[in-house]
Amino acid sequence: MEAKSAPVFGSSCREDIVAALRTLLLARGSSEEEFERALAEDRVDLLVIDRLLMPHESRDMTGPEISEASGMPLEEAGKLWRALGFPEPGATPMFNEQDVDALRTIRGLTELGVSGADTSVQVTRVLGQSMARLADALVASADAAAQDGGRPAWATEAGGEGLLLAEAIAFSSEIVFPSMEKLLVYAWRRHIQAAARRLASVRRDGSYESSMLTRMTVGFADMVGFTALSSQLSADALAQLVDRFEDLAHSTVVGGGGRPVKMIGDEVMFVASQPLDAVRIALSLVDAYADDELLSDVRVGLATGPVLLREGDFFGSVVNRAHRTVSIADAGTVLAGDEVRAEIQVLPDGDPDDLVWAPLKPRELKDIGRVKLWQVRHAGTGTSEERRSGHRWRRLSDMSSELATLRARGERVIGAMGVADGGHAGAS
């Protein structure tokens, strides 16, 4: 039998893409008839997704069948399936031996006492949410990469969009995703190491209170004017803005020794085990956004105290206080609760002299009451308004200089045209 050549992706020719997809799918267990039927019905992309992303050799099974095969009660299996982020398993055949293996693993951990039923659901929910976000990002990235080289003319024809997506997914499943699996395991182990070290640290410094309650400084950074700005931008420009906001926030928080908890549009929540680290992160965020040409200023609110750690997120009055605090801050400022200031004042090395603290009148926070707040900034810098005005003045000065240069160039061109026309340039 003649050996088939390996599929080659990246061609702009429709026939080459179809041939590559056919070769790959046949090698992965699809039949010629199945592929031709999918091609005729414009669902090659769905065939690629089902055959390559979750390959399996056994027949598809129903919910009751995987329950029986794994030894896990159907009700418990359904809870875990919902926790992953999928609808209730029913009589439709949609599961395979990989689902059975996953249920057996969870059942084994429960029987060993490593995790209970409630803990399994909780961890599965966190896993499902994290994997869903990662999957969306990877699929969108694969689709964007397929569009970068330009869309061929045949893409607008019937079935063209599906073939482009099928090619992108097939290439990613064969080349990208296997390496990503190794990266996922590596990142998972690294983060487990970091989480375990954080737990060990809080036990040593006395801030540990329980397996779910720990003392942290919580911060919220909010980009000012995002709603008005986003309404004026195209979808591509808005995506660029959000990407830039998240990238700058993540790198600044991590670089300062903190941990980004979540990002919601124009807002980032972060935590730090030490109040001073949180203050320096907050000031770095203000500086970074003030100096960024694409983004507007941010404002930051900080609060310290015991927080509830649940499913990778933090809850409690401290979180609420930090969130309410940022809502009353001015653009380009950092506001901190009185407890943040108090803990920094009693540091072993003393109160850092590179920070300036200005007390504010007690402020009323919604659903919390009156609290004492401090505005903190770097020593030697002006107020937030002076800083922002100065930064804007520098931008306007740069624009004015560029306009003057362009004007001078225009005058020289017009003058040269006049000479070339014998001094009659612009004459009617």
Structure description:
The chain is an alpha+beta fold and 428 residues long. The chain has two domains: 14-192, no CATH class; 209-381, Alpha-Beta Plaits (2-Layer Sandwich). Helices cover 57% and strands 14% of the residues. The protein is built from 14 helices and ten strands. The chain has helices at 14-27, 32-40, 44-53, 63-70, 74-83, 97-111, 117-148, 160-205, 226-230, 235-255, 275-290, 317-328, 338-345, 384-420; strands at residues 213-223, 259-264, 267-272, 298-310, 313-315, 334-337, 355-359, 363-365, 369-371, 373-378. Strands 1, 2, 3, 4, 5, 6, 7 and 10 form an eight-stranded mixed beta sheet that branches. A two-stranded antiparallel sheet has the order 8-9. Helix 1 packs across helix 8, helix 3 packs parallel to helix 8 and helix 10 runs antiparallel to helix 11. The radius of gyration is 29 Å and the shape is flat.
The radius of gyration over CA amounts to 29 Å
Run of helices and strands: HHHHHHHHEHHEEHEEHEHEEEEH
Q: Which shape, going by the Cα principal axes?
A: flat
Strand content: 5-15%
**Chain-averaged pLDDT:** 80
Determine the structural class based on helices, strands and strand pairing. alpha+beta
The biggest sheet, with number of strands, parallel, antiparallel or mixed sense and barrel status, is: 8 strands, mixed
- Total of domains: 2
Q: For the terminal residues, how far apart are their CA atoms? A: 82 Å
Supply the number of helical segments.
14
Low-confidence stretches: 1-6, 424-428
SS elements, strand count: 10
Helix content class? 55-70%
